[in-house]
Amino acid sequence: MPTPALMARGNNMGRGPYEKSGIYEDTALHPGQKVEERFEIFFPVTEVDTPDGGTAQVAEEREMDVTVQLWYKPFGNMSAAELWREWTQTISLDKRAKPTTYYSGNKE
Amino acid sequence: MKSLKIIGLTAVVLCLTTSLAFALGAGVGRDGTIAAKYNKQGKAESLQELIDMYDVSSCIACHPNNHEQWDASPHSRSIYGTGRAAATMITAMKNGFMSWEYSGVESTKDIKVEHWMGCMKCHLPQLADATDAVAVELADTLLEWYDNAIAAANDPDDEDAVETSERLAETLQALDINCLICHNRNAIVHKWTDGYPQHDTVYGYTDGGHMDPQFSKTKRSLIMDESILCGQCHGLGPNLELENPTQCATAYGSYLWAYQAGGGQETCQDCHMRKSGLGHEMVSYSNKTMQEMAVDFEVQAYASQWLDGSKLRPKTVVNVAMVNRAGHGIPDG
Known about the structure:
The complex is a heterodimer. Helices cover 0% and strands 48% of the residues of chain A. Chain A has no helices and seven strands. Chain A has strands at residues 2-6, 20-26, 34-42, 45-49, 55-59, 63-72, 82-92. In chain A, the strands form three sheets. Chain A has a two-stranded antiparallel ribbon with strand order 1-2. In chain A, strands 4-5 form a two-stranded antiparallel ribbon. A two-stranded antiparallel sheet of chain A has the order 6-7. The radius of gyration of chain A is 23 Å and the shape is elongated. The termini of chain A are far apart. Chain B is of the alpha+beta class. Chain B has three domains: 1-28; 33-186, no CATH class; 233-333, no CATH class. Chain B has 14 helices and five strands. In chain B, helix 5 (84-97) packs across helix 7 (132-154), helix 6 (113-123) packs across helix 7 (132-154) and helix 7 crosses helix 8 (159-173). Strand 3 (34-42) of chain A pairs antiparallel with strand 5 of chain B, so a sheet runs across the interface.
């Protein structure tokens, strides 16, 4: 959303309409412009000893339920917030896994 | 003695001329507006007079659907809102012009219409058609409502506080953006080009008669289907015409300089009234249809790994792509 300047001076944010004049930042989605966001979420891992005397990180779970929600927050928090979109999918480490005799790093 | 009489007569004539010019204002037809016809001063002298001046109760019988849609819209409670808007008006008053050194306001009795215009330019534009006494009454009404609403919330058995807060809330909710604001008072932006909106005319899409004794004519407004009709209130940015500029909505600025500058051709009315099917309800972010229309939303996710030193760490990658299909930035504000 637009971050309005306080009385059109400096980078202090004006809060009430009576003190807002100008915009010094705007995080809104703008008309026709594509906005892409990338998130990386790590699986929880446990460090285990390997037969060769080293260690490896083993995922504690093989699946992760991911939910992406798009909220409209008129006051910047959850007060009167509206859920616009919700997307859910289970991401599996095994979905595209194939048998291999060559391991890199994540030994069991 | 004779020369003194002549001077006296001249003075009276000059005063009358000045008064007539003030009443007429600039341009032919200004004296035919609702405000000019309402009383000799062209100004409402109380909140109730202002409510009566822009009374739309005669519209309901023939336009029940439009009225029902409008009644569900924020326009029907443009000062009161859910109570939050009214409280913000009080904040604007107390933290704004009542606290500013050069505003000339120390107490509510000093408040003039111009002090309120930072809010009321859009929340109650017809306040410009009222005297400064109405500006004072509005301030006192808001404060009395708020004090009693708090008292009633703290003690629901306080009958006096409950009755007073409900009565004053009703008054505040009767001050709104109604049929006559969009279809009369604000239906003409370029008044020297197109004339002043006339007191007996409803502005829409056709010229002709209208079955209402008080509003017996219809006339085409050349901006009824143009975004500038809405842009009068939905904001370019700072309201620089004010002595102390305010800023609320910026949607119209975004519409002009981001949406239309990028080739957008829809109008406010196209999306908020017609394509959405909302008609005169014309709400925005809280409506499911508008939410669907506003944004393309696509998510792709997959499992991958991160090289953490010499170890691989499994992760999920989530890519989210959004395109704003509205005619302005989301959110606005």
